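Exercise: predict the fold of this chain.
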Amino acid sequence: MAHCAAFPSPESRIPSPVIFDVITIFPEFFSSILEHGVLKRGRAGGQVEIRIRDLRNYTDDRHHTVDDRPFGGGPGMVFKPEPIFRALETLKSEAPEEEFRVVLLSPQGRLLTQAVAEEFSRERRIFLLSARYEGVDERVAEHLATDEISIGDYVLPGGELAAAVVMEAVTRLLPGVLGNEESRAQDSFAGTARGILDCPHYTRPAEFQGWPVPEVLLSGNHEEVRRWRRRQALEKTWRQRPDLLANTHLSQEDAKILEEIQQAAHKPKL
């Protein structure tokens, strides 16, 4: 009797990993970051593959020059376009059939949000360009990069930290990386909490230096706990990030709670 070959079910197949190629002049910067937290777990579990590429390996002069003075004068140095284009062309030739994103990490880029992280988590391969000094030749942004991403309205010496932030934000979204998927769904900016900051959290001891844990959390009443947490989350968002509420669809319950919070805040104190 013939034996049929056993094939793994679709549910048991390990999906193709998201591949990050990080282009940097400081490859040693990532040696510790990759050995901790979600990046370590994602790499060990096969959900993500991270390749650190030294930009100097793609230069053609004996000094491995990657930057030069800006045309028109001014302080600082600018990354030259040739090594970056050469690096991308070389890496793309390794798998010419693959689709990819080329992400330039720059203060001029669109802000990294949870929605952007989710968008990137659906990609197969992502190139992260970590610039330094005064940035990169604009022709890289115009003709090579598919995305320009900023992690905030402040200035860092280079893009390595930003690259690590992008990789962590994306990797934790990949199936199986986090042990508790329910916890991820309840994060600020994610799942049902999208647009609302997280509520306060407490653990043992129930009283510390005279500061007690809110009684409702010790009550065992799950519905009351849920309502308290939602109220706290809405109040924290209204006080600290009211801009988020402008683009958030609130349920009738949320709208009523928020109205109560605002009325209480504006009520004259006796």
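Check your answer against the key: Confidence is low (pLDDT under 50) at residues 1-13.
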